[in-house]
Amino acid sequence: MKNRSIMIQGTGSHVGKSILVCALCRILKQDGYRVAPFKAQNMALNSFVTKDGKEMGRAQAAQAEAAGIEPMVEMNPILLKPTGDTGSQVVIMGKPIGNMTAREYYQKKGEFVSIIKEAYDKLRDQFDVIVIEGAGSPAEINLKDGDIVNMGMAELASAPVLLVTDIDRGGAFAWIVGTLALLTSDERARVKGIVFNKFRGDKGILKPGLDMLEGRINKPVVGVIPYIHDLSIDDEDSVSLEYSGVNERDQGSGVRGRNTGDKYLIPDPRPLTPF
C-alpha cells in the first residue's frame, strides 16, 4: 500500500475523533503499514514541543506515538492557541506568527492552503497511510467557504471519510442525519460509513435504530465503540476545551485491540509534555 489516506470527521467536537485516529494508527502499525496522523488545523490551550523545539497539537503527538513514530510538525501544520473568546495565537509549522482575531484569521485562511498541502505531501511521500482528523463538524455552513480542515481537506487528499458521533450525549441519530443533510452531494459521497462512539448498554436494543438509520441515509454503520472511562488524551477544539479542566466530565471512548481483545488504550500523553 502506498499513499493511501482515510479521514475521520465528526458530527461535532468532543465526539471521539482524536482517539479513533489513535486507534487506527495503532491498528495499521500492527498490520505492518507505515502510518502517520495528520490534522490540518488544531485548536488547543497547550502544545507539544518537538525535539527541534517546534509546537504542535498534543493529540497529534499521542497519535504519532500510537503509530510508533516521532512527532513532526507536518502532522499539525496550523495550531491555534486561544487567547480569549475571539482570538488566538497562530502557530504555523511549529512557529508562532502572532495573535489574530477570528475575523483576521478567516480572512487569511486561504493563504495557508499551500502550507497545509506541502505538509501533507511530505507525510504522504514518507508513509504508506495517512490517517487524517477533521475538526468540529463538516456541517458548519457559516464556515464552509475556504474550509481547510474538514471536507476541504478530504478533497485535497482524495480521502474517504468515516463520520463519528457521540451516542452518550443523546441525539446521535438526528446528529448524523442533520450533518449529512447539510453536506453537498459530492461531500456526502465521500462519507463511506458511520461510527457510533461512547456506547453503553445492550447493543441489541440499539440495532433497530441502526437498521432504520442505514435505510434512511443509505450508508453503513461500520462500528459501535463502547464507552471506556479515563482515557488519557487531551481534548482539543473550541467546544472540547470547555469540558476539560473547568468541567471534569468523564470522557469515554475506545476500541478493542486486535491482538488481545483487551481495551485499546493509548499511552498516557502527559509524559510527552515538556512543561
Question: What's the CATH H-level homologous superfamily?
Answer: P-loop containing nucleotide triphosphate hydrolases
CATH names the topology as Rossmann fold
Strand content: 15-25%
Outline, from the CA principal axes?
globular
Can you describe what's shown?
The chain is α/β, with parallel strands linked by helices and 275 residues long. The chain has a single domain (4-42, 116-272), classed as P-loop containing nucleotide triphosphate hydrolases (Rossmann fold), CATH 3.40.50. 32% of the residues lie in helices and 24% in strands. It is built from nine helices and 14 strands. The strands form four sheets. It has a six-stranded parallel β-sheet with strand order 2-9-1-10-11-12, sandwiched between helices. A four-stranded mixed β-sheet has the order 3-6-7-8. Strands 4-5 form a two-stranded antiparallel ribbon. Strand 4 and strand 5 form a beta hairpin. Helix 1 (17-30) runs parallel beside helix 2. The longest helix is centred in the last third of the chain and has 15 residues, at 203-217. The protein is globular. The model is unreliable at 238-275 (pLDDT under 50).
